[in-house]
Amino acid sequence: MPLEFARLVFMAFSVLTAIAASYIALLLIGRIADRSRTHPLWWVGGSSLVFGTGIFSMHFIGILTHHSAAPVQYDPILLSISLLGAIGAAFPAFYVLRSSHPPKSHLYFSGFAIGFGVLFMHYIGNAAAQVSGTPQFHLLPLLLSIVVAFGFSIAALRIFSRNRKRPDSPGRKLLSAMILGVAISAVHYIGMLAVSYSTSATGPASFTNMGLAFVVSALILLLLAIAGYLAYLDRKQLINEQRYLKKIRESERRFRRLAEISPEAIAIHSGGKLLYVNEACLQMFDEPDAEKLIGTAVLDYVHPNYRDIAESRIASMNQGLSTPPAEQLWVTPKGSVHEVEVTGMGIEFEGEAAVQLLIRDITIQKKVARELEYNRQRYESLFQNNPDGIFSMDADGNLIDINSSFEHLFGYSKTEITETPLSELIEECQLGVTVVKFQLALEGVTQNYETLGIHKSGRRISLRITHMPIVTDGKVTGVYGIAKDISAEKRALALLAESEEKYRSLFDYNLDAVFEMDKAGCFVNANSMTEELSDYTRDELIGLNFNPLIAEKLERVQGFFATALSGEAVNFEQRIKRKDGDIIEVDINAVPKRRNGEIDGVFAIVRDITEKKASEQKINNLAFTDQLTGLPNRHWFYQNIREVLSRTEELHQKIAVLLVDFDDFKSVNDLLGHFGGDQFLKIVANRIHSCLGPNDAISRFGGDEFIIVSENTTEPQAHALAQTILQVMREPVQLLGQEFSVTLSIGIAFQTGSESDGEELIKEADFAMYSAKENGKNNVQVFTHELDSQMTRKSQMEQALKKALDEQQFALHYQPQVNLASGEVIGYEALLRWQSPFGNVPPSEFIPIAEETGLIVPIGEWALRQACRDSKEFCALGQAAEKISVNVSARQFKDPDFSEKVRAIFEQEQVDPGRFEIEITESVMLDIEQSARIICELKELGLRIAIDDFGAGYSSLNVVKNIEIDTLKIDKSLIDEVLINRRNLFILAAIIEVGKNLDARIVIEGIELEEQAELLQPFGIVGQGYLFSRPLPPGSLDAFLSESDYVATSTAAKLME
After folding, report:
1. Residues 6 or more apart from 878 whose CB is under 8 A from it?
2. What is the sign of the dihedral through the CA atoms of 1026, 1029, 1033 and 1034?
3. Is the residue at 380 inside a domain?
4. Are 217 and 103 in a shared domain?
5. Using N-to-C axis directions, what is the helix angle for 785-804 and 843-853, rounded to 10°?
């Protein structure tokens, strides 16, 4: 029994030792959380040392109890390892427990660390005991010791963590120490059951049981002494803390009472999380439940624009720095935004460092401030920028303030006007009224009146004055005034009265019908011309709707009326029915009638255009009818062709266009005169018209050209129609006692598809007609692909000609003119050549195109200028001839400024015009009067005039009879058969004789044979042709002239034989 009792005593002593060690360690760890502690690692180390040593002591007391029957020896190295293992495991466990509120993960880690340290110390310590026999492990006690070690350690630390800040309950710390001590003891004794040994000790002696007992007893006594002393200190501190905490709780209660009844919002946060909000804060956040705010992030309620600043301020508060109040935007959980002023300071709340925020809602205050500032700016803006003069006066009538408009109104600066007496600002006769009105305003009655002001310059100003009392604290302290310049208004009223009189005069005495209608379309006013136009009296018209007066298309008129009522002016023509039943046509101009800015009816001016429309119809008939033949004219054709093309396309029919042109109408006109020519056209027009069918329409296209459109036709039918016209025209025309056999050429073009238009068809028919003339005249040609190619070439040449001048593609060649009597070269004719992209195009091909397109005008000017420049080169090289002839086109000659342009060219090139001759064709002379004027102007410049192609079929004698010319150039056609046809020779001789009698030089063109030259030599004329030379470029004239002596000699000799 004594041995068993000793074991029980030792077991109890071992458990108490474990509890005492645990209590001391936890007590020390609890002190580390105090922020005032320095060197926390030393405290953690001390706690670990006490705890490790305590459980080591408890272990070996238990070993003594377990092996009391036999002595046991121990390995000192393993003993040391077990002790250090217990201390080492305790250190990280207590280190993570040093904070006030360690997270659960830290608690679990500490529990596992302590459990591991206990197990490590126990099993390594067991291994240090040198016991005979082989150890035998028992699984269930082993596992149970592990579970108890970890489970009880975690439970003890969780109880400790929850109650470490409750100094009013020291028993809770003891409870944690007891649980941990029991757990350590349980691990030991259960672990002892997990391993069994033989009772004899082996190995070298190290420590005997007595020695170990002595050491352990000493350690236990030391631990108990430390535990007692620490318990005493803990109790003493506990009493002090309880007193301090009581004061703190009392202070907190007072703070909470003050905070709860504070009208300002108060919030406390720590680590960015809200810990407390008062009632005012809840009201501001519109949140009745404080629990919904507690624990949320304070920055969540700060507007994103202010979060960076708020974070910076919180950091400063946490460091104990003072921060001034700051205005911010805060957002409530429901999304409403408040403007707040936030004041913060660092405090300790519930034992932790925290930040207290005083949040003053200044939303209304800021809104009021903004409205006050807005109103102030509005007032200032209204005062300073008001177009009317604004002023304020004190009760004595002294000006206090004026705006810039007031300064401008009177012409005084603010300083000047305050020193100017009222008598210099207001007309003398108005002073009394002004004073009375001012006094009434001082009595509290607003005054409005008109007066006459005086500008600094002395000019009188019509003013409308408003006086309003300035009331301060219920007392009138001055007068606020507005001075409006109504001079323009006065003038406008006068003008309005004058305008009203003018309007009434225009309304009553207007030669057109003028009336007003209301929005329902009923007459409300009408002048006398309206009565005359409608045959209704004014009384009958007033109240009458316009509908009965509309003769046709009533809905259209109603639409126009609605448009006018919508605010737009309308103009239209309409047939109306008078009261007597007559229908007349009128032109109506209707505009919206406004009153006070609102449309309340329509104002209309109506003019009778019945006679005008009749005249227009006549004019229209004249415009679309050829007055000579009675046939439709060119304008009608262009309008009709569009309709025909549209109709035939819709009906999938084919049309043909026939262009008819007389081959020699000029000879008829020359022989019979214009009157005879007109009669001739009437006759042939009737003949052509008689050939047409029901689907054919004819128009006089101009001059002697007629154009026929044949609908729903075929190519054979169109060709047959053309042959019928030719057949009818074979019969001679009897006119003015003479008989004429005339021929004509017809070109036909067919619509080739929907892409054909009128212009294209006319162009194709015209091209085909000219092809008929080129093929001997008096025949029909249909536009074909070959002609299309020719037309394409012509179009391409047109485009190329437009670039030819800029690209310097033109050149002048010169053909000598030789005196047939002497063989001497007396001049050159400048002939145009085109070095085109198509190669060398003959003048006979490109000059008609240039004439047609008008390009001949700039080309002709270039040719004259280039001839001037070449002439200067000829003079410099000694190649000058008596004259140089330059051709001028009919298109150039029609330019009224032609002679002035010629003069400018000679002046710019500084060449003598007397060395030049201008060649014109007889066709240029159709308008004798204009041609005579231009020729006279050219001759005044010193130029000589030559008629080219004389005798080619125009009114040659008429030309030379009316115009003074210098040279007659006889056309090549008169000498082509002169060698075999004596009649031609007689005609030629007659023309030469006429020319000589007119003192004109005679030039024969186209001499190609020596026989022709021999025949013409006796006439003493000039010759030109390939017999003497082809046209030569300027650089080749030198070679020609070097041979000219030979040419002159041989030619003269042959002519003299």
Report:
1. none
2. negative
3. no
4. yes
5. 80
Q: Which two tokens stand for residue 757?
A: 């238009």
* Phi, psi dihedrals of residue 438, rounded to the nearest 5°: -65, -45
> What single-letter DSSP state applies at residue 952?
S
The pLDDT score that the predictor gives to residue 249 is 66
- Give the end-to-end CA distance of the chain in Å, rounded to a whole number: 193
Report the alpha-carbon distance of residue 940 to residue 370 in Å, rounded: 91
One domain, residues 773 and 802: no
Residues 485 and 535 in one domain: no
Its sign, for the CA torsion 370, 372, 378, 383, is: negative
How far apart (Å, rounded) are the C-alpha atoms in residues 329 and 303?
Answer: 5
In terms of domains, do 515 and 575 share one?
yes
Domain tally for the chain? 6
Torsion of CA 969, 970, 971, 972, to 10 degrees: -110
pTM of the model: 0.39
Q: In this structure, what DSSP letter does residue 732 have?
A: P
Other Cβ atoms within 10 Å of 282 Cβ, number: 17
820 DSSP assignment: T
In the DSSP assignment, the letter for residue 887 is E
* Pair of tokens at residue 739: 């008989």
* Residues 974, 991 contacting (CB under 8 angstroms): yes
Tokens 């082809």, residue located: 1030
Does 145 share its domain with 183?
Answer: yes
Q: What's at 324, amino acid-wise? A: P
Q: Which amino acid is at 508?
A: D
Contact 732, 741 (CB under 8 A): yes
870 and 1034 Cβ atoms separated by less than 8 Å: yes
pLDDT, one tens digit per residue, over 120-146 is 777 777 777 666 556 666 777 777 777
- Percent of residues in the chain assigned helix, strand, coil, to nearest 5: 55, 20, 25
Contact 226, 245 (CB under 8 A): no
pLDDT band at 29 (very low <50, low <70, confident <90, very high): low
Contacts of residue 832, Cβ cutoff 8 Å, sequence gap at least 6: 810, 811, 812, 843, 847, 859, 863, 887
Q: Which two tokens mark 24?
A: 């001391």
pLDDT attached to residue 952: 59
Q: How many CB atoms lie within 10 A of CB 424?
A: 12
Its sign, for the CA torsion 199, 200, 202, 207, is: positive
Q: Does a structural domain hold residue 820?
A: yes
747 phi/psi in degrees, rounded to 5: -110, 140
CA distance 671 to 841: 37
Nearest residue to 972 via CA among 956, 958, 988: 988
Say if residue 665's pLDDT is above 90: no
- Tokens read off for 635: 């304008």
Distances (CA, A) of 486 to 405, 453, 459, 489, 992: 14, 11, 14, 5, 94
pLDDT band at 576 (very low <50, low <70, confident <90, very high): very high
249 is a domain residue: no
CA dist 188 and 163 (Å) reads 27
Range of the domain at 929: 798-1056
Could you list the beta-strand ranges (E) of 155-303.
Answer: 195-196, 265-270, 273-277
Distances from the Cα of 315 to the Cαs of 328, 340, 355, 518, in angstroms? 17, 20, 10, 79
Question: Which residues is 513 bridged to in the sheet?
Answer: 606
Which among 198, 15, 177, 194 is positioned nearest to 119, based on CA atoms? 194
Q: Is 370 exposed, middle or buried (0-12, 13-18, 19+ CB in 10 A)?
A: exposed
Distance of CA 387 to the CA centre of its chain: 37
Work out the number of other CB atoms within 10 angstroms of the CB of residue 453.
21
Give 427-485 as a DSSP string. Answer: -GGGHHHHHHHHHHHHTT--EEEEEEEE-TTS-EEEEEEEEEEEEETTEEEEEEEEEEE
What is the secondary structure of 825-841 as a DSSP string? EEEEEEEEEEEETTEEE
According to the model, what pLDDT value does residue 312 have? 84
Average pLDDT, the chain: 81
